[in-house]
Amino acid sequence: MPALRINMRKLKDALRLKFEGGQSHQQIAGALGLSKGVVTKYVGLAVAAGLDWPAISALDEAALERRLLASSRASQTYAQADFGRLHQELGRKGVTLMLLWEEYCAQVGDEHRADWPLKPWRYSQFCENYRQFAKRLKRSMRQVHRAGEKLFIDYAGPTLALRVHGQEIGRANLFVAAMGVSGYCFCLATPAQTARDWLGATAQALTFYGGVPQLIIPDNPRALVTKADRYEPLLTDSVQDFARHYGCSVLPARAYHPQDKPKVELSVLLVERWILARLRKHQFTSVEEVNDAITPLLHWLNQRAFQKLPGSRASVFAQIDAPALMALPLQPWEWAVFKTVRVHIDSHVEFEGHRYSVPNALVGLALELRVTAHAVEVLHRGNRVASHMRCAHKGSFTTVIEHLPERHQHQAQWTPERLIAWGARIGVACAATVQKMLQRQPHPEHAYRACLGLLSLSKRYGDARLEAACTLALSLGTSKYTHIRDILLNRRDLLQASTTPEWTSPAHAHVRGANYYQ
């Protein structure tokens, strides 16, 4: 373990006692609690540097340290490394300190000449100097990020008011995302912080970056996390579906540990300082107006140069993060909700009052619905077994004939409209008879068998006789299948209508009439 460094204030007192007080090394060591050898060393360094007490008293501690130790430092004979550039290079995938040290040694060897006889550091000293540089970048624990590996997301605490005619109608919440290596920032205003807002803003952030990272790291919002666990947090089904769509993973940070996502915490701070602060006096009526105002300020923030590192967030992102991102999927992401349902005995499941068919072999099983704005997908053990266009008509059915049992498929093909149309092909009277048969029953399906039986009579008796029988039945005020069948069977449809007038009884004395009974 190396010895502790001696305080320069105490060394300055030792030099004062030596040059101004004229005390011996032994006396100075006893008075200040130093070893005699330390006093002898630093007095010798001061004499070698040509310093006396008036010159020493005029120097501060940092300047005195440079004057005393300048001649003893051998590091001045070593070539300095550009640790700012090396710090950024270390973020690339596969780049290590050993590789950077080898490149540094090769560069020093190429630049070596007689008038500049510098040599490279050994690997251990090179790593130590880099660690000292990294400590000056941040006082908290440094996290090593790989290119294109992580995207940190969060919401800023402050919000922007939305006003119409001076009356507040809502608040605009600011979603912030930042890449792990470059800190390339994305900001978007949303009307709330629901799960749909979180995932929709994240999807727009991925489009903004032009690629997908391996990990997306939020905190633990209730909108995204069903169970906030330190080791195995449980995400909602919508979040897991979002991750499957983009081929990445969502890994929430530990609860109440903002240091797990320092990149986005810093980006939130920058957004509050350089974007929110500049918009504080503006009046907005909608979230879209807020986003229009954010766009140029966000571009300026990403182009702003670093203070200690070369380049800007935009340049570092283009060089390091962007090439390592995965490609965006071809299909755009859609908001989806999931619901567990059970298949009814009619081979249908219900969502929001509408019923959708599934294969009849799944009757009685619990299935999962994935519902988007336009489609309803039915999943069984993760596999899609049916898909329908979403319908908002409550009480109706969306049925695929192939989903029904074979004995039901033939009957399911018949509808009141189809039966009436078939009857119309035979004749007007036949179509009217079918319509009356359907209207007579409390539900049209109750008349399906009778209608099919009526229409099947045309195969035995022909369309002309069936049309004539229906005409006769309508004139008699009946539309029953059995009556029409008996008309055909008794051949009454073939009888010609009589042209003689109906017989009436002649008047005579034996007919009393109605007045007789009064």
From TrEMBL:
Any one GO BP annotation for this protein: DNA integration
Boundaries of every Integrase catalytic domain copy: 139-331
Keyword Mitochondrion: no
InterPro entries in the record: HTH_IS408/IS1162_type (IPR017895), Integrase_cat-core (IPR001584), IstA-like_C (IPR054353), RNaseH-like_sf (IPR012337), RNaseH_sf (IPR036397)
Domain HTH IS408-type: 11-90
SUPFAM superfamilies xrefs: Ribonuclease H-like
Source species, domain of life: Bacteria
Pfam families: Mu-transpos_C_2
Gene3D superfamilies in alphabetical order: Ribonuclease H-like superfamily/Ribonuclease H (3.30.420.10)
Keywords: Plasmid
GO molecular function, one term: nucleic acid binding
PANTHER family: TRANSPOSASE RV3428C-RELATED
Family as reported in the entry's similarity comment: Belongs to the transposase IS21/IS408/IS1162 family.
Official protein name in the record: IS21 family transposase
Organism: Polaromonas hydrogenivorans
Lineage: Bacteria, Pseudomonadati, Pseudomonadota, Betaproteobacteria, Burkholderiales
